[in-house]
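User: quick one
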Amino acid sequence: MTKGRLEAFTDGVLAIIITIMVLELKVPHGGSFEDLKSLLPIFLSYVLSFIYIAIYWNNHHHMMQTAKHVTGSILWANMHLLFWLSLVPFVTSWMGENHFTSASVFLYGIVLLGAAISYVLLQFLIIKSHGKESVLAKALGNDFKGKISPILYVIGIVASFFNVWISGIAFIGVAIIWLIPDRRIEKALKNEN
Amino acid sequence: MTKGRLEAFTDGVLAIIITIMVLELKVPHGGSFEDLKSLLPIFLSYVLSFIYIAIYWNNHHHMMQTAKHVTGSILWANMHLLFWLSLVPFVTSWMGENHFTSASVFLYGIVLLGAAISYVLLQFLIIKSHGKESVLAKALGNDFKGKISPILYVIGIVASFFNVWISGIAFIGVAIIWLIPDRRIEKALKNEN
Amino acid sequence: MTKGRLEAFTDGVLAIIITIMVLELKVPHGGSFEDLKSLLPIFLSYVLSFIYIAIYWNNHHHMMQTAKHVTGSILWANMHLLFWLSLVPFVTSWMGENHFTSASVFLYGIVLLGAAISYVLLQFLIIKSHGKESVLAKALGNDFKGKISPILYVIGIVASFFNVWISGIAFIGVAIIWLIPDRRIEKALKNEN
Amino acid sequence: MTKGRLEAFTDGVLAIIITIMVLELKVPHGGSFEDLKSLLPIFLSYVLSFIYIAIYWNNHHHMMQTAKHVTGSILWANMHLLFWLSLVPFVTSWMGENHFTSASVFLYGIVLLGAAISYVLLQFLIIKSHGKESVLAKALGNDFKGKISPILYVIGIVASFFNVWISGIAFIGVAIIWLIPDRRIEKALKNEN
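Assistant: Done. Structure below.
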């Protein structure tokens, strides 16, 4: 099976998720700067989620470049990832509109953790079907980023019951880790050719 | 005619349908777990419909891989399928928001049945234009899944007047049948090459 | 310039337009069949507009298959077409929600006419850049459908001031004309190869 | 890395942005022409923003045709551009719904300026990775349009505190400058081949 449509469908879903979130920035009735103030927490949540979706798209893009074929289970693992990501707009605006209550930060973390686990699962299936000597397997190495992220999510989720600031730092921390340039896959692909 | 744009357009529409449904999960005003409770039936409906759309995408993907060309009638049969699927977000949230009333479960079943029939029609037209010896015709074989699904839908639709639980079991049953791995087309494509 | 991205962008916009219209089918508060009744005019408008967008996608698909390259003016003519089509969801639901008032039927016709004219313009520019001996030019022939459509739209628009039923018949008439199979381009492409 | 998915994702996001804006044209309750009147400022904002997004798509399309490969930083610069453009629907409807108040025109200008700067950044990174002798570098020349636009945006932003008409003229002016046919890249690509 070719991977083209899996990529196209994923691109479509992520493009819609990333754009739909901005619809939750409901246009305020007044036309002064004062009227925008109440949107600030929603806007900040939007920025964080935008970065998360962008990271997922970026990583997905890199990962799929190493894949030569897809199997039925890869298709479903990909759908599973899209399911968790499709919940991001909901938890983003719930968190933003309620000014980061404990419950909303908790749920935001759960959805991020769900997406992270389903991404690892997808990655595992691709490596499994391509072999341990495949580009992706070599590129990942010990996969430090992939291992530290779930730990930070769990810290953020647990912390949400005590102090949502700690959760915020944990979630922003994961985003920063992934934003740091990481040429593992680019290098591995080059070595291959 | 090439099949590329038919696939791309279908991917686009399905990506939007699957993502738009989550917009019906309206963000509750309160920020506690208690406030989420009322969303549970909508969320469950969403999960079921997400799985359905994912199954359709998956099957469509497999089916189109066997197609070598498309005709005018295939284009319209595909549009017809998309029409029924475009109604899924509406019936999903009507059913969820009204906690599975008889009428809403009935309509949900009708839309699923409409989609199933239009899918069979599309499949028939592709086989017709490719011949009985084509990959798709061979892969389908006696097409057990394709034959049992409409029967289960009709059971679910009729049952909605008496007991919506039976309908629910019927509709979830169809989803489970299709989730069970099924390598008919993958195998047939391999044999071809 | 290659035509791939023009097709992809057009597919994206049309996929969104066709799917977004269904969002105007606002889920009614009650869960009985009675509660659906008031949605009937909106649903009928939706079906008509769905068919229109499907026709445009179909025709666009066929037309672009004959194109070998695109120019800057073709890109803009295409955007101009998308602009008119992007107004379809608005006029569709305005017409449906107000039960086909004179003004709403008038505006619906204007948008359809705008789309039709911009399509003819796009077609003209593609023929111009490919020459009178091009596949598209030959395929169109005297272009009966393309000539009768604007006339029917104008009849529908004018009639909206007296009797919206006549407008409805005119608009449905155009859709039927285009739904009748028409293999001009398919044939011309075959002759070419 | 191949550029296909970057183009596809960008096409998806821009297609959604351009179509989502029309959702802000909320269907009025009455069905007469009188009821449409209050939508006029929103409609005008929509037309302007539609043209802007169309220009960005057009320029992006041309620019990417000259690119032979993409790097990690190009992917992120592209995401940065999409972030600013994703805010366009919000500022468009805020400006339209509040009839061009000083604050809303100011914010509209800020978002346009942010998009323009991120576009220049993206262009810079593509040239950097392809070399000064690349097609894009040659095509841009002294890049008059790219240099005058930010100046006009800043004029529009500053003027919003005194007279929003001046801002309007500045913003419409930028759009007109870019609508004027400009064959630099088309020519440079031809010379290359």
